[in-house]
Amino acid sequence: MAWNTRATRTVYENRWIHVREDEVTGPHGDGIYGVVRMQHPAVFVIALDEADRVCLIELDRYTTGRSVEVPAGGSDGEDPLVAAQRELLEETGVTASDWESLGRMNALNGIADAPEHVFLARGLTMADATTSQREEGIDAVRWVPFADALRLIADGEITDGETIAALAFAGIRLRRFR
Q: Residues 31-55: pLDDT tens digits?
């Protein structure tokens, strides 16, 4: 049985998200479904340097506390590649000469309409983003070997779902899974 939306109403909206409540009929009958729609797709960047190290950032998230993540952010209506390039520079002070799209994914697809794009960035050059990092709330930028990033997932230090998925995309592309 397909889902049927009988009615919908906006509950909340700002420049980043739109929250609606839908009256639906689905496989288990009638119900109410809350849906969060991101106003623009998000981007995630796996920045890999010549020493095979991945760039990670550390910050404090209001919702979950301390978090170790790959550079990421909203596209603000830009082309996803342009947004990825901007986010990498703002959050880490790094630019890249070689960009590759690794794929597309959906965040929290049980409650959200939140498309995301993952990119691999190589040919890295250090610029300066000290001011941007402070504005973004970034406490530290770390460079760890790719294999160590996977260990950080296994050890529970990286818990951000999108970072885990982005690293999986990169691991598949780079043939790093054994």
A: 999 999 999 999 999 999 999 999 9
Residues lower than pLDDT 50 in the chain:
none
Q: Which residues of 145-171 are buried (b: 16+ CB within 10 A; e: fewer)?
A: ebeebbebbeeeebebebbbbbbbbbb
- Identify the pLDDT of residue 136: 76
One domain, residues 82 and 96: yes
Report CA Rg, the chain: 18
For residues 155 and 159, what is the distance between their CA atoms, to the nearest angstrom? Answer: 9
Same structural domain, 48 and 109: yes
| Distance from the first to the final alpha carbon of the chain | 40
Residues 12-35 as b or e (16 or more Cβ within 10 Å = b): eeeeeebebebebeeeeeeeeeeb
Structure tokens at 77: 């209506």
pLDDT of residue 5: 96
Q: Say how many domains are in the chain.
A: 2
